[in-house]
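Private note to self, pasted from the team thread so I don't lose it. Backbone tokens:
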């Protein structure tokens, strides 16, 4: 297919660490790195452009994509991380549980009341911040939720989000793999 491949160590705790190592092996200089998570094989090129645009703001060190959740099944699926987003577009928190919790409604009635967002497995980093991110110690929140981005929030870093309209299909379970195979089958 004409692409270049960089083999990285097998002991990296995250994709961010793998990106940092790959970047260190290149002889070129870059401003930013886009990390498409391995469980997101259907990322659209427009989503990469959207994330790159977020990184064009010099105040943004880390960026990621979110999408409005449209179904109750997505809302309650623990394999789909949810994101609470501030008015300025920065992520406030990521969780495998539906957040925020709507105290006075059953979960089946949450979606018409509030925009819930799911996280899309793609990150962008300014090259200057990447070495710092790889040196951060894993925090309590990351260990509890098993979500790498919580390490950055826990250490005080901001993550800018952009809303995508493209639907992706993450592959996290055997059922997801079956859906993906049906999607690409002629």
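Design output:
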């Amino acid at each position: 297919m004409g692409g270049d491949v960089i083999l990285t160590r097998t002991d990296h705790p995250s994709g961010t660490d793998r990106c940092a190592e790959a970047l260190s092996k290149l002889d070129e200089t870059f401003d930013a790195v886009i990390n498409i998570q391995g469980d997101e094989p259907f990322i659209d090129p427009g989503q990469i452009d959207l994330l790159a645009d977020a990184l064009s703001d010099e105040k943004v060190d880390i960026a990621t994509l979110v999408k409005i959740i449209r179904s109750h099944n997505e809302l309650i699926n623990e394999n789909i991380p949810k994101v609470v987003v501030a008015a300025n577009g920065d992520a406030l928190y990521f969780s495998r549980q539906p957040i925020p919790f709507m105290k006075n409604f059953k979960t089946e009635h949450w979606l018409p009341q509030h925009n819930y967002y799911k996280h899309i497995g793609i990150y962008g980093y300014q090259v200057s911040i990447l070495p710092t991110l790889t040196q951060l110690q894993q925090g309590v929140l990351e260990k509890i939720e098993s979500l790498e981005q919580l390490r950055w929030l826990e250490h005080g870093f901001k993550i800018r989000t952009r809303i995508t309209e493209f639907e992706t299909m993450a592959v996290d379970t055997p059922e997801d793999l079956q859906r993906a195979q049906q999607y690409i089958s002629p």
